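Look over what follows to help learners.
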Amino acid sequence: MKLNGRRESSNVEDRRGLSGGQKTGLGIGGIIIVGLITLLMGGNPLDVLQQAGSMMGTEQQTTQREFTEEEQALAKFSKQILAGTEDVWTQIFKEHGATYQVPRMVLFTDGVQTGCGGATSSVGPFYCSADQALYLDLSFFSTMKQQLGADGDFAYAYVIAHEVGHHVEYLTGLLDQVHQKMQTVNETESNKLSVRLELLADFYAGVWANYDNKMFGSLEDGDIEKAINCAAVIGDDYLQKKARGYAIPESFNHGTSAQRMKWFKLGLQTGDISRGTTFQCSDEEL
């Protein structure tokens, strides 16, 4: 991506060097741990996320260490991407007669305290609606590269934009509505609702990329392919088959590789938020 001269968001809290447990919100990265580690142990993805969410940290402790040039570069990159999402969604909300309320991004190491409770970095990046913040341990990008072969700055940007997509869902009221509905249905139906939330966040990430490129000319050759590859390798079916050789569709809670690629590409190609119909279409159309 072309980011030279782009501003960095000031809505970032850098807690790297602090440690503590946390409760997870929605996270694109949590499924990697579920798919690659927990499933090898025969666990259920939802059970794992619930267990991660129930872990409560104690007091955070400061650790003294120097950050590498790569870590600092990733921190700057993340701040620039968040700034881009601020510019894009401010514009989109304005076009629809609304005001965008920007989220915070918290950078942390190992574990962190949030409005949703406590969780460790093993759950991956996640959004917490209780404090309207997305949480990111930058080491997750190394996990993407080493374990899944999903590399490249636009692939990393897609991860951040996806979590911001959950913030957009929160601002529109959809996130709370769906979470309430999920509490009233069985696990299989709850998973289906979760999939639709995740695919909509993928779609919103694509919409962001469309606008960002028009506003700043940010995309370079190969960027789109890297992001689409990232969407493919974090599909539930791909991760479950990679972990234990087969997939259990009723346990999917983020969407298949094909679905995640489809909705990201639709947002990217159209830039039209009205096309984000993951809750209006049938299961077959999804």
Residues 187-216 form the longest helix (30 residues). Confidence is low (pLDDT under 50) at residues 21-25, 37-60. The CA atoms of residues 228 and 261 lie 6 Å apart. The first strand starts at residue 12 and ends at 15.
